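User: I'm preparing a small set of examples for a lab meeting where we compare how different chains pack in three dimensions. I only have the primary sequence for this one, and I'd like the structure in token form so I can line it up with the others. Please keep the answer compact; I'll paste it straight into my notes.
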Amino acid sequence: MRLRALAAAALALAAAALAACEPIEGPDPADTGDQLAVVFGDSLSFTSWDESTALYVADLDWQVSLNHDLGYRFDSPRWVARYPSVPAGSTVILALGTNDIASTLSTCWTDCQTAADIKADARHAIAAVTAAGAARVVVPTVNETSAGLSGGPERLWATVAWNDWLARADVSTHPDYRALDVVDWSAVAEGRTDWLGPDQLHHNAA
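Assistant: Understood. Below is the structure token output for the 206-residue chain.
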């Protein structure tokens, strides 16, 4: 009886886990490449949805699954539910971190976190998509230029600390980072205030 109860409990947990999973967004019908990029983003990437789709449609090798409008942090429940659904062999882009950093600041007023919390959330996201079979997990650094302009010194230094942590994250620091590829977006965007919208945080059409 005990073994039967344990087996039933295990099946119930497995069913709950499957029920909690969500499928990722499908590519644009005109997007016919054979290599898949799965993007998990926030409002910064949502504002460039059309441009991103057009770039992938124009590239004959790639197609893209854009997951932008249902989450905004690494620990957003809808993203957590979709991480296990990324197809094996895909490239996953976790274009997140800006709102995670904001949740650690003194100006945070709801659902606040610590720096340790957001690192744990990022680690879980990276581990989840890697376990699902992602061949490459790309995490961009957060724009330090916009952080300083939009949030002042506290946000700037929290962003610098986050980017420093990301820069040290590789397989030598954690086995879950074996597919991790950190891209230094902050360096690319350094000083490019002409890429920013009126709030100095979100991107403009450039």
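A couple of notes for your slides: DSSP finds eight helices and five strands in the chain. The beta strands are 35-41, 62-67, 91-95, 136-140, 180-183.

User: Perfect, thanks.
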